[in-house]
């Protein structure tokens, strides 16, 4: 830091000093410089004292098709170097409002999925108990189940805004009840969700069952098919979702395969004819004003992401989630 202050114009540099953690500007610090953290934020050992924290969960043991999401957190962090301090589209100024840091990764057990779920649950119990809002870099969608166990222990059953190609409400596969196709079934089983406040958006694809959405609708979920989103703005839909969620705690879970693989090819279970990046922004920005208690972005698998666009989208969507957290001011 001393060397940087000597090298650059000190009065100009002071504009970026803050009592909060602020991503360094590329005007003063070259993007490839420094530790590869989310948004180039400081790395902290714990969530204590933070308002929000980025957390990696590099697990893909629950994947049913193409593996590789264990490398998602690392690549999302790398691509996040392009994300800057302010959201000029919405006016959000998260780094002038909240104390945010990257607290590293949960040390999962890649050889034992139930053990990994226990480790994730224990890690998030500490994060949530500290009063910090976790923003998670996945990892396959299995991870949302133990995260929601910890979140619901503090907040009670939560509402859910779930963007995905799949409902992830299967009961079992190959005899196993925990994998990336079952997290929300397990959450219902354990009473972690307020089922009247669940919205699943972007759902599509072929199915093994003639009525694949019956379970969800029987629970009271709102299921919004991708076909119902084609060629339209989702701003009106999100007005309805905000009314559905009310002022009680809400969790956002965003599977990158909710987007069309033309935009997000780097994922394990792609489905054609999905959402656009603009619609993804409308969904997340439409969550502004909700009582958001946690978020995740899952299923980025970098080896299928030749251009890096999928991880870049993931990094920007996580920034957008940060921008809609409670107490974030606007410019």
TrEMBL record:
One of its GO terms (molecular function) is agmatinase activity. Pfam families: Arginase. One of its GO terms (biological process) is putrescine biosynthetic process from arginine, via agmatine. Its cofactor is Mn(2+). Binds 2 manganese ions per subunit. Mn(2+) binds at residues 141, 164, 166, 168, 255, 257. PROSITE patterns: ARGINASE_1, ARGINASE_2. The keyword Electron transport does not apply. Keywords: Hydrolase, Manganese, Metal-binding. Belongs to the arginase family. Agmatinase subfamily. NCBIfam families: agmatinase. This is Agmatinase. It comes from Anser cygnoides (Swan goose).
């Amino acid at each position: 830091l001393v060397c940087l202050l000597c090298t650059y114009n000190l009065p100009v540099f002071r504009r970026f000093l803050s009592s909060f953690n602020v991503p360094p500007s590329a005007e003063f610090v070259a993007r490839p410089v420094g530790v590869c953290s989310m948004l180039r934020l400081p790395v902290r050992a714990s969530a204590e004292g933070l308002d929000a924290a980025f957390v990696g969960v590099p697990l893909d043991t629950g994947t049913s098709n193409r593996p590789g999401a264990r490398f998602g957190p690392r690549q999302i962090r790398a691509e996040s170097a392009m994300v800057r301090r302010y959201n000029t589209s919405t006016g959000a100024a998260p780094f002038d409002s909240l104390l945010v840091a990257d607290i590293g990764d949960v040390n999962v057990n890649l050889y034992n999925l139930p053990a990994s779920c226990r480790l994730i649950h224990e890690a998030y119990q500490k994060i949530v108990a500290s009063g910090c809002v976790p923003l998670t870099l996945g990892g396959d969608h299995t991870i949302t189940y133990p995260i929601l166990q910890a979140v619901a222990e503090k907040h009670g059953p939560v509402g859910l805004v779930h963007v995905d190609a799949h409902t992830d409400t299967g009961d079992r596969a190959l005899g196993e009840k925990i994998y990336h196709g079952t997290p929300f079934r397990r959450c219902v089983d354990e009473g972690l969700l307020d089922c009247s406040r669940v919205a699943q958006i972007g759902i599509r694809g072929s199915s093994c069952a003639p009525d694949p959405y019956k379970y969800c609708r029987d629970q009271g979920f709102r299921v919004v098919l991708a076909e119902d989103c084609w060629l339209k703005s989702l701003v009106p839909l999100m007005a309805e979702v905000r009314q559905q969620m009310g002022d009680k705690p809400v969790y956002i879970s965003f599977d990158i395969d909710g987007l069309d693989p033309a935009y997000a090819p780097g994922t394990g279970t792609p489905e054609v004819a999905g959402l656009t990046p603009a619609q993804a922004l409308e969904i997340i920005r439409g969550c502004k004003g909700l009582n958001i208690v946690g978020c995740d972005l899952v299923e980025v698998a970098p080896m299928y992401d030749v251009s890096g666009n999928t991880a870049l989208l993931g990094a920007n969507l996580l920034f957008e989630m940060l921008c809609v957290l409670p107490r974030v001011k606007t410019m």
